[in-house]
Design a protein that fits this description.
This protein is of the alpha/beta class and 322 residues long. Helix content is 57%, strand content 10%. The protein has a five-stranded parallel sheet. Strands 6-7 form a two-stranded parallel sheet. The radius of gyration is 23 Å and the shape is globular.
Length: 322
């Protein structure tokens, strides 16, 4: 499998809009720009791995053809987030004339929500001044961090998490191309760990493929350091059932023997609780406890103490609700 020598998320990145999966409505609207040959400023917003960068690059390829690289530039705002990058690099690109007969150029600014407010204000002025020669595509995870004057100048596209069908379709396509055998259980595991993020899904597949061309769910959970859904269910059952010692033992196995990160366990517990059929008042208390521990961990508290305290809070909350 020569593909293991390259990064599959780049190797299998769609080159055309029609090759994208899971964002059909957005793709159809972007294709209309290609047909007209014109483009407004765009703002792509959504979580990681849902196709924002892929859509921007594919749009440029279809707008400019073979000359797309001369009229398209990609920048990451998280690398240089101050006002100088707007005044120098971005302004310099925007003010120069398009090449190869194109009527405008495209600047794709990834992670635009990392720009400081001053830098965004300068960017807004640049977008106004050079609108005839340059179109801007801004990408961000949180549109609320983009100032209103920029949002009002852009057509906003909200990319949702990819659904199960889209992830499975792409994984099966890559597996067929690479000569892999992927079990149904492995597909379920990939969908579970990806949470709508195609990059996570493809990276999990490649990581497992390096070990064995026949991939099952055990390999996926091990390669991604993720607990199985049934293990999370057992942890919750023991905690809510008042079995502190048993829950603590299982927690230790997941954290230390399996090497699963505390924040990942918190995230998985939250996902399991949301879908769990249980007393609503108790569910609220447990989710509140998860949020408190997650915050404390982000502030640098001891992960072992906080995770055991979380189990203790689950036990106490369940006893009070009994």
């Amino acid at each position: 499998m020569d593909g293991n020598r390259t990064i599959w998320i780049e190797k299998y990145r769609p080159r055309k809009l029609e090759e994208m999966v899971g964002q059909k409505d957005i793709v159809a609207r972007l294709q209309s720009y290609v047909k007209t040959g014109d483009l407004p400023h765009l703002l792509f917003t959504g979580s990681a791995g849902v196709g924002k960068t892929t859509a921007a690059v594919a749009l440029a390829r279809e707008l400019f053809g073979d000359a797309w690289q001369t009229n398209f530039r990609e920048m990451n705002a998280s690398d240089e987030r101050g006002i100088d990058v707007v005044r120098n690099q971005i302004k310099q690109f925007a003010r120069t004339s398009p090449l190869a007969g194109a009527s405008f150029k495209v600047l794709f600014l990834d992670e635009a929500d990392a720009l400081t407010p001053d830098a965004q204000a300068a960017l807004r002025r640049t977008m106004e001044t050079y609108a005839q020669t340059c179109r801007f595509i801004l990408s961000c995870n949180y549109s609320s961090k983009i100032i209103d004057p920029i949002q009002s100048r852009c057509a906003i596209y909200r990319f949702g998490p990819l659904d199960r069908e889209a992830v499975v379709e792409e994984i099966r396509r890559i597996a067929a191309h690479e000569g892999l055998t992927v079990t149904d259980g492995a597909l379920d595991a990939i969908v579970y760990i990806a949470q709508g993020d195609m990059r996570k899904a493809i990276n999990a597949l490649q990581g497992a493929a390096i070990l064995n061309p026949t991939i099952d769910e055990t390999m996926i959970y091990e390669i991604t350091a993720t607990a199985r859904p049934e293990e999370i269910g057992e942890l919750l059952d023991r905690s809510i059932g008042g079995e502190f010692n048993e829950a603590e033992q299982l927690l230790g196995e997941l954290l230390h023997d399996r090497g699963i990160a505390p924040n990942e366990l918190i995230n998985q517990c939250y996902r399991a609780l949301i879908q769990r059929d249980m007393d609503r008042t108790l569910k609220v208390k447990l989710i509140d406890a998860l949020g408190e521990v997650d915050f404390r961990l982000s502030e640098g508290a001891s992960s072992d103490i906080q995770m055991k305290a979380l189990i203790a809070q689950f036990v106490l909350a369940a006893q009070k609700g009994a």
